[in-house]
Amino acid sequence: MPEVLFREEILNGESVAIIYDSITKTMFHVKGNGGAIWKLLDGRRTIRMVSEDLARASPGLDESDALADVTRFVVQLGEQRLIRFAYEV
């Protein structure tokens, strides 16, 4: 979605992902794994693929917890209309 911009910043010594919706002029600050998940959401990977990649890149995070994190974050992004969902048929 070209109207949604993403960048990473250091705020108060902490890495924060910033997602900006240029249509609604709304800014979201995302901490934790949110920035990594956002970067993995390329329109080709499934939620399961994203969670597997996240678990591999995050020591101490197992795949079931990664799947829960990714699913929760994707739902939140969808509720804010920051992403569109694609379904395989």
TrEMBL record:
Gene3D superfamilies: Coenzyme PQQ synthesis protein D (PqqD) (1.10.10.1150)
UniProt-listed Pfam families: PqqD
Protein name: PqqD family protein
Source organism of this protein record: Candidatus Thiodictyon syntrophicum
Organism classification: Bacteria, Pseudomonadati, Pseudomonadota, Gammaproteobacteria, Chromatiales
